[in-house]
Amino acid sequence: MASGGWPTLISALTATDDSGLPVEVIRDKDRGWRLTRKVLGQIRLNYVVDFTIFANAGWPSSLESAVADEDHVAVSARGLFLTTDKLQAADIRFDLPSRWQVAAPWPASPIPPAFRASSKLDLTDNFVVFSIRAFDVVTTAGFRLQVTTMGHWTKLKPLVRRTLQAIVTREVALMGYQQREAYNVILVPMEDTGGEAYRQSFVYAFKDPSEANRGVWANTMAHEIFHYWNYARLQGADYASTQWFQEGFTEYVANLTVVGGGMITPPDFREKLAGHVANYRRLTTTLEAIGTHKGPPLYSAGALVAFTFDVMIRKATANRRNIGSFFRNLWRYTHAGDRKYAWPDIEASLRGTVPLDWQGFYEHHIKGNEPLPLDRAFKDAGLLLQEGSDSPPSVKINPAATPSQKFLWKRLVSGD
After folding, report:
1. CA 116 – CA 93 distance, rounded (Å)
2. In this structure, which of 112, 179, 226, 371 has its CB flanked by the most CB atoms within 10 Å?
3. Which residues contact 403 (CB under 8 A, 6 or more apart)?
4. What CA–CA distance (Å, rounded) separates 62 from 226?
5. Burial status of residue 92 (CB atoms within 10 A of its CB: 0-12, 13-18, 19 or more)
6. Are 236 and 341 in contact (CB under 8 A)?
7. Distance of alpha carbon 294 from alpha carbon 179, whole angstroms
8. Which tens digits make up the pLDDT trace of 367-379?
9. Does residue 325 sit in helix, strand or coil?
10. 3-state DSSP call for residue 324?
């Protein structure tokens, strides 16, 4: 893989043209293959995909390759499909052995029993699951989650289903999303903890999931599923300088989702905010100058910007608008992510939500290195930020909060 790329997994490749005549293909290093002659019409390919190469090499992250047990085979679509630079949309059909079924991360095609991937990226940047077990399905407003629970996740199936229903319902509503979509959630039985988000799928391992630690794994699920919008569709024109938005705002939406959905309590949410402050204090660059090194300080800094923006929007509009109003504007301004965003797009979307000095905030606190105005944001939300030199930050309810500040906090943690 290191030297040959994904084509390393492919063996016994043969090609034939429309008339059944063989077409010679030559391996072109890590770029795949090329034909030895020009062919008009379709080409039929036959090949074997061998994911055991990862296992035999001791590859540590099956979340990026393949996971299997007696009842399931979950595989990266990057290793399944041979594509060309000219490929646009693709119809996919699976012919499976008896009893087996597929959870495909694409909507059904108008010509059943196929699926339709709207782009090459949608085709390859995903995970596909084959199983002899029925998949759990969670649906809201046309957004269809197909849930695969393996190993120790199986005993939590009802709780997982309720959790995902609450998450996707709230996030779809926040985005005002009405398109038909399929999305795979694959919960794998690893003794490690970690997740990998794809275009329309998410593979997740949590060492010992339970109802007691639901707030932890539910927050990760909410974070990764929201990446469907804020990463897979909404993308920054420059990767490094927009990660504070991609990761930080996604984390804040996840925090809002789990508190609004009752998966954590408002005091738990205040603890999350305090944790973000502690992480943010370790940030050594401006938000735009982080480079490619992401981590908790950047995630938390971005989450605190999102929290501050949410409070500013709510205060200025008497809670009639919020962070969701801004995201729906950005979705429209970028034509559902067809155009990559930069700060002017974010600023225009904020200004379209409520006309405040967003540019000044950006110049001072995002592009610039002035500390975020957290004391003011917490005060406007009816909270007190307490910090000491020898104690971690804490966020408390402000006993001197005004009725409007108390009401803002109540609306914020309820998800309204």
Report:
1. 9
2. 226
3. none
4. 22
5. middle
6. yes
7. 31
8. 999 999 999 999 9
9. helix
10. helix
**At residue 408, what are phi and psi to the nearest 5 degrees?**
-60, -45
Q: Count CA atoms within 13 Å of residue 364 on its CB side.
A: 10
Residue 298 contacts residue 250 (beta carbons within 8 Å): no
Tell which residue, 76, 85, 37, 86, has the closest CA to residue 54: 76
Greatest pairwise CA separation for the chain in angstroms = 82
Q: What's the distance, Cα to Cα, between the start and end of the chain in Å?
A: 48
pLDDT digits (tens, 9 = 90+) for 205-239: 999 999 999 999 999 999 999 999 999 999 999 99
Kindly report the length of the chain.
Answer: 416
Residue written as token pair 């100058």: 289
Tokens of 122: 């949608």
**Does the reported pTM lie above 0.85?**
yes
Taking the C-alpha atoms of residue 305 and residue 361, their distance in angstroms, rounded to an integer, is 10
Alpha-carbon gap, residue 225 to 183, rounded angstroms: 9
212's tokens? 């007691």
Question: Residue 306 is encoded by which pair of tokens?
Answer: 């999102």
What is the CA angle 303-306-312, rounded to 5?
145
User: What is the 8-class DSSP label of residue 347?
Assistant: H
Q: State both tokens at 223.
A: 């974070």
